Amino acid sequence: MLIEFSVANYRSIAERQTLSMAAPKPRGGHDRHLVATGHPAAPFVLNAACIFGPNGSGKSSFVEAVRFFKTFVSDSAHRMQHGDPIGTVPFALDSALADAPSEFEIVFIAGLELFQYGFRATRHRVVEEWLFSRTMKPHARMRTIFRRRLDPVTGTDVYEMNRDYLKGNREVWRTSTRPNGLFLSMSVQLHAAPLTQVFDWIGSKLVVLPSIYLAEEPDSSFELLVDKDSCLEILGVVGIEIIDYEILQRRSAHLEVRSDRSSPFARVDVKTIHRDRQGANVSLNLRDESDGTRALFQLAGPWLEALLENHTLIVDELHRSLHPHALRLLVSMFMDPKRNDGAQLVFTGHETSVMARNFLHRDQIWFMEKDRSATVLFPLSDFKVREFEAFQKAYLDGRFGAVPRIRDFRDD
Predict the structure, then answer these.
(1) How confident is the model at residue 271 (pLDDT cuts 50, 70, 90)?
(2) Are strands 269-275 and 48-52 parallel, antiparallel or unpaired?
(3) Burial class (CB in 10 A: 0-12, 13-18, 19+), 373
(4) Hey, which bits of 253-389 come out as E strands?
(5) 21, 66, 126, 278 — which has fewest CB within 10 A?
(6) Exposed e or buried b for every residue in 62-81, given b needs 16+ CB within 10 A?
(7) How far apart are the first and last CA of the chain?
(8) Angle at 95 between CA 90 and CA 97, to 5 degrees
(9) What 8-state DSSP symbol labels residue 301?
């Protein structure tokens, strides 16, 4: 599970900003926002967190930082060639940071260990990379698995490796790592079994949906919609019909699949099934549904998969085209212990109805705004607020900041 993610000098983010999912021990009452990890270093984490802020505050930059981090870890070993540029985008409004490295770091629990992994990179090379871990033993300390740094004198990478942890051909892993690639990624490509768990968690368990995702053609994991009453609950329809999708062969009471083409990549035709006034089923093409229904269909696949596979799901602008009740339903799925056994949700947005009393806990609410032209991220818990206070009204009144500064136009 995700403990925290940090980023510095990337897009609108200058100084290091950290989103923490760690949470204090529950005090009873409203504690459905917490999940026990079993690890003494972070006994409890949030199952959901939201980031509120005005347009241009940097919410999308933060989500894009997570996306870049994940993609670079997954692709640097096999899709990048020697000399290819690294896709870092330094903070543009400070000349001192223009050529400085961007920094990314994640802390998470996988299996029985807590891992802390990160790297610093310019557009041309990785200048530092590190991985630490801590076991579940009560008095265990963080141990170094490997550290890599650029020697400014020789211009070469210097490594420190834990020989007891990294068993294998460490010299081959080291010499095979390109300046513009990650040691973690290359060593896993070369069958470094001890690092596979870290690589797989970042590549598979960490899922990022940028805001553009909801504007694309529906390409959700249709297999997950079969026999899933939750999908119908999300969409608010009687049933779904998918035509011309070769991969699916099964049928269920709620989903009919007819395969008329031989190619598994054939374009799908999705229909929603409604009940008319006389009680008969009526099919509508998904293209004729509202923006909100299409957005919900697009989200349904990764949403159900996250809950099924215990993913950490990061979603930008989740509120887009969604009614407040639909948004609340989606978020509540991650906060329901009957539905969720370890998945996490982090989302950005403007829809403040989820701040309603007795829904989100104050530890789940984060704010983002600009300070000296740079993005700043801070939690509601930084403020002295009463547990029963109406967070939504206080936020919209500007008590916590992170609201638009709109000029008051008046007639003279």
Answers:
(1) confident
(2) unpaired
(3) exposed
(4) 255-258, 269-275, 281-285, 312-315, 344-349, 365-371, 374-379
(5) 278
(6) bbbbbbbbbebbbebbeebe
(7) 57
(8) 40
(9) H
- Integer Cα distance of 324 and 392 in angstroms: 13
- DSSP 8-state symbol, 399: S
Closest CA to 375 of 59, 95, 64, 67: 59
CB–CB of 254/232 below 8 Å? yes
The radius of gyration of the chain's CA atoms, rounded to the nearest angstrom, is: 23
Q: Phi/psi zone of residue 12: left (φ > 0), alpha (ψ -120 to 50 degrees), beta?
A: alpha
How far are the Cα atoms of 57, 373, 399 from residue 392, in angstroms, in the given order?
Answer: 19, 26, 10
Judge whether 321 and 352 are in contact, CB under 8 Å: no
Which token pair is 291? 């923006």
What are the pLDDT digits (tens) for 224-269? 454 446 666 777 777 777 665 444 444 344 444 444 444 333 445 6
Query: How confident is the model over 129-138, as a mean pLDDT?
Result: 94
Domain boundaries, the chain: 60-209, 211-315
In whole angstroms, give the CA distance from residue 183 to residue 173: 7
> In this structure, are residues 305 and 312 in contact, taking their beta carbons and an 8 Å threshold?
no
DSSP 118-154: EEEE-SS-EEEEEEEEE-SSTT---EEEEEEEE-TTT
Both tokens of 140, joined, read: 């265990």
pLDDT at 28: 64
Contact 210, 225 (CB under 8 A): no
In DSSP terms, 124 is beta-bridged to none
Alpha helices in 216-285 (DSSP H): 229-235
Determine phi and psi for 194, rounding to 5 degrees: -65, -20
